[in-house]
Write a structure and sequence with these properties.
The complex is a heterotrimer. By secondary structure, chain A is an all-alpha fold. Chain A folds into two domains: 260 residues, ABC transporter involved in vitamin B12 uptake, BtuC, CATH 1.10.3470; 34 residues, no CATH class. In chain A, 77% of the residues lie in helices and 1% in strands. Chain A has 15 helices and two strands. The longest helix of chain A has 27 residues. The radius of gyration of chain A is 20 Å and the shape is globular. The relative contact order of chain A is 0.16. Chain B is mostly helical. Chain B has a two-stranded antiparallel ribbon. Chain C is of the alpha/beta class. Chain C has two domains: 160 residues, P-loop containing nucleotide triphosphate hydrolases (Rossmann fold); 67 residues, no CATH class. In chain C, helix 8 links the parallel strand 7 and strand 8. In chain C, helix 4 packs parallel to helix 7 and helix 6 packs across helix 7. The chains are: A mainly alpha, B mainly alpha, C alpha/beta. Chains in contact: A-B, A-C. The interface between A and B is large, with 45 and 45 residues.
Chain lengths: 306, 295, 281
């Protein structure tokens, strides 16, 4: 038991940041669950993190206040952005959010009064691993409650077949907007925790690296279930850490190889409710669902042109 | 006025590099439907291979460039076979492809870092002429001229190939509908390999020239090209090489002029602001007629 | 009695006037006008490519029309987005059954109850009793619907694992969950044998008797003859004829549209078991 705790404390920091990346991944999942492939959570995190840093410096805000502020900041910016982003068709949303993350950095660099400019801004750490665990647990609880709710089922419908969903009375735009605001709230919170744990944030903290990492974590862990985001982030953080004890310098490459392999052999990620259900019902055929997907895509195309 | 024209020229030279990179990046997106995050690494690798040619094998500049370009092209083919082709067979969508390309980018990038020792490398002085060439009252570096000529020539060449040769028609057909193309007798497999090679080779070429012009051969150089090339393709449009060229030039000029006349620290803001604005108002690009159909 | 006579008395369940849609130069639907009487089963017929599915897409709001009006019991729905059209009381099913992948049978039908529910996000997250009660009620209603349409598979099975006939019924149950006044069905018996088709027809009759007005796109002539009270026939986007199913089927232009040549008409008639009225010559 003592030995286990020893190992645990060695990896404490890794685990803490694994959870924080998990929250970013969860924020990405929130909108992905309605079919919106957005990397804007990095920007939401920037808003949350820099708001917290400013509030801490100017008003000595505590952690809880900071989390609330970050949540509101992220949600607000997400709501505003949704009016712009949701007008784009799905392929362009991904590109627009990449552009957004790029632009955010430029603004961070060029507004030193708000963000400390290229030199960044320092913070005093007020959170512990328990805080991070607590926040993560709350967020996971929210998703667990939403999963089979009126909203959750509508979200799945919108993601899988927006046309069929709309003929059931579901406003696709509305559901996607809600999911973006949810993404903003969680992203903002994740940004606050990131800033607090790092004790320093700069232009590169909430940049493309974070965006790609959180997206990779969601897909790796399972883009079709809320728990997948956390699983993916933990694996993504721990794999290189553990490997670096054994292999010199090769640890980062392991993540790259892992991504490629998983996308080929487990394209729906590690946590996949459909795969589990198929096994339970003795279906076990990937081909059947692939055919169903192909038929669905064909219908959606036909519905437009016939 | 002279300063204005000089900076304009500098912008065109910079934009030419972006355009060269963007040709390949846009080709892969328009034809194969892949938003390839790893494309920047083809540029870094092209530059690196050329550098090896010069450093280890004492090759003169031009043969080294050729080796670098071909090396990058072959790398592109390898990546397509190993990473993207299995996805193609499964009908994986945009998300899965992006993730795989991120994985490839990590792998290739880590290796670049390994070989450059996490530093920026440069071609040894004397590899190519560093003279300034006078054009009236303006001047340009030799490499900048090479950049500009290359971009325009290759754009013209690509345009001719795509519009007026069977191979080009095959590439466009596969991009529009691979199944229909196959039925019409296009060897889709061969077209895909060719496209992968060509796109990566173009990126390698852009990488070599960029590495030479900025004395920066590194992983970061490739990443920077990726984002600028991405912006160029979005702003200029996908399907048409002329639009991509225009987009690249526009981005390059906007960057240099913005740094000169507005603020040097805001230079990237203008580029990405332009990118965002175009995505909002005219997502298919300023000069494109095509609407993006596939995922 | 014609369809129009009935509807003049009560107001049409679905009234379409001058509906048109072009894709570039192609006129997919051209100036279509017809109405559907309440509590009836109406057939929308025509060979493949006639534009029938496009009509359904226009009516259900998945696609904007170029001109024309669509009214549901007097309420105009043309130009509305699909989710608002659904709100006006139009539900539909699709040619290839479009169920949501990954959902169980019960979950599938529950998605149809979206409009009938009012739970807000915060009520869900806070585990309020009102939200939990609504969930239970909706699930009960969903089970009742599944019973009503005759789905025998257990509700926790993956919907996509069911047989085709059962999937079709689940899709109908899901559409019924929206509490529609008019239901559009796109080739509901495609791929079914005579026994299954007849059973589905009986289900449609039951739904009609319970107050629903139905529009069927169908190729199954027997089904149309047995269950539809009125029909229109389209070809190349235009209306060729309207009337009772028998009248439609006996119409020579219709037969030519389906089978090509008028000289084949007699062979067609014997196949269909329809004999031309000699007094019509």
């Amino acid at each position: 038991m003592i030995a286990f705790l020893d190992i645990f404390s060695d990896y404490r920091a890794t685990f803490t940041f694994g959870l924080i990346y998990g929250l970013f991944a969860l924020a990405t999942y929130a909108s992905l669950a309605t079919g919106v492939l957005s990397m804007a959570a990095a920007t939401f995190g920037a808003f949350g993190g820099f708001s917290y840093a400013r509030l801490q410096a100017d008003h000595d805000i505590g952690l809880l206040g900071g989390l609330v502020a970050g949540l509101l900041a992220g949600a607000a910016i997400a709501w505003i952005l949704s009016f712009v982003l949701l007008r784009l068709s799905s392929h362009y949303v991904a590109m627009a959010t990449i552009a957004l993350v790029l632009i955010t950095r430029v603004f961070v660099v060029n507004l030193p009064s708000l963000t400390g400019g290229p030199n960044g801004t320092g913070l005093v750490r007020q959170s512990t691993l328990w805080w991070v665990l607590g926040v993560t647990a709350v967020c996971l609880f929210v998703f667990w409650r939403l999963a089979n709710s009126r909203y959750g089922l509508a979200a799945t419908a919108v993601r899988e077949d927006p046309q069929a969903a709309s003929t059931l009375g579901v406003s696709v735009r509305h559901i996607q907007r809600v999911s973006l605001v949810l993404s903003g709230a969680i992203g903002g919170v994740a940004g606050v925790l990131m800033a607090d744990q790092l004790q320093f944030i700069g232009p590169n903290t909430f940049y493309i690296d974070l965006a790609f990492t959180m997206l990779a974590a969601v897909v790796l862990g399972g883009a079709y279930h809320w728990f997948g985001a956390i699983v993916g982030a933990i694996v993504f953080r721990f794999l290189p850490e553990i490997l670096s004890d054994y292999i010199d310098d090769g640890h980062e490459i392991a993540n790259g190889i892992l991504l490629v392999i998983i996308m080929i052999y487990l394209p729906r990620g590690i946590v996949d409710p459909r795969r589990r259900k198929q096994r339970e019902h003795g279906l076990g055929s990937k081909r059947k669902s692939a055919k169903a997907d192909a038929a669905l895509a064909h219908d959606q195309a036909e519905a437009v042109t016939s | 006025m002279t300063l204005f024209l000089q900076q304009l020229l500098n912008g065109v030279a910079l934009g030419s590099t972006y355009a060269l990179f963007a040709f390949g990046f846009g080709l892969v997106f328009a034809t194969l439907g892949i938003l390839n995050i790893a494309h920047g690494m083809f540029a870094s690798w092209g530059a690196l291979i050329a550098l090896w040619g010069v450093d280890e094998y004492d090759l003169p500049f031009i043969p080294a460039v050729v080796v670098g370009v071909i090396g990058a092209g072959l790398l592109g083919v390898a990546v397509d076979r190993l990473a993207f082709n299995p996805l193609r067979k499964r009908g994986t969508g945009l998300l899965g492809t992006i993730i795989t390309s991120i994985g490839v980018a990590i792998i290739l990038g880590t290796l670049v870092d390994r070989f450059t020792g996490h530093r920026t490398k440069r071609y040894p002085s004397g590899t190519f002429s560093e003279d300034l060439v006078d054009i009236g009252s303006l001047n340009l570096q030799f490499i900048q001229i090479v950049n500009i000529i290359a971009a325009f020539t290759i754009a013209a060449g690509l345009y001719v190939v795509m519009r007026h040769t069977r191979m080009g028609a095959g590439i466009r057909a596969v991009g529009y509908d691979p199944d229909a193309a196959a039925i019409s007798g296009v060897n889709a497999g061969r077209v895909i390999l060719l496209t992968a090679f060509l796109a990566a080779a173009l990126a390698g070429f852009a990488g070599v020239l960029s590495g030479a012009a900025t004395s920066n051969i590194s992983r970061g150089m490739g990443d920077a090209l990726l984002f600028k090339g991405f912006a160029a393709v979005v702003v200029g449009g996908f399907g048409d090489v002329r639009g991509t060229l225009a987009g690249g030039l526009l981005i390059g000029v906007a960057e240099v002029m913005g740094a000169q006349y507005i603020s040097s620290s805001f230079r990237d803001a203008i580029t990405f602001g332009l990118l965002f604005a175009v995505l909002l108002v005219r997502p298919r690009g300023l000069f494109s007629e095509l609407e993006l159909k596939r995922a | 009695m014609t369809s129009s006579d009935e509807t003049n008395r009560q107001g049409a369940a679905l009234e379409i006037v001058g509906l048109s849609k072009s894709f570039g130069g192609l006129r997919a639907v051209n100036d279509l006008t017809f109405d559907v009487a309440p509590n009836s089963i109406f057939g929308l017929l025509g060979p493949n490519g006639a534009g029938k599915t496009t009509v359904l897409n226009l009516v259900s709001g998945l696609m904007p029309s170029n001109s024309g009006t669509v009214q549901v019991f007097g309420d105009h729905v043309e130009g509305l987005p699909a989710h608002r059209v659904a709100g006006a009381g139009i539900a539909r099913t699709y040619q290839n059954v479009r169920l949501f992948p990954g959902l169980t049978v019960l979950e599938t039908v529950v998605t149809g109850f979206y409009r009938q529910r009012s739970a807000r996000l915060w009520q869900t997250v806070l585990c309020l009793p009102s939200e939990r009660r609504e969930r239970r009620e909706v699930e009960e209603k969903a089970r009742a619907l599944l019973d009503r349409v005759g789905v025998t598979a257990p509700p926790d099975r993956l919907a996509e694992s069911l047989s085709y006939g059962e999937q079709r019924r689940v899709e109908i149950a899901r559409a019924l969950a929206t509490e529609p006044r008019v239901m559009l069905l796109d080739e509901p018996t495609a791929g079914m044998n005579d026994v299954e088709s007849d059973a589905l027809g009986q289900l449609l009759v039951t739904l009609r008797d319970e107050g629903l007005s139905l529009v069927l796109i169908e190729h199954n002539i027997k089904l149309v003859l047995n269950f539809c009270s009125h029909a229109v026939v389209m070809n190349f986007g235009e209306l060729i004829t309207k009337g009772t199913p028998r009248e439609c089927v006996e119409n020579e232009e219709v037969q030519a549209a389906y089978f090509g040549k008028q000289s084949d008409a007699e062979r067609v008639q014997s196949v269909l078991g329809v004999r031309r009225d000699p007094r019509a010559d």
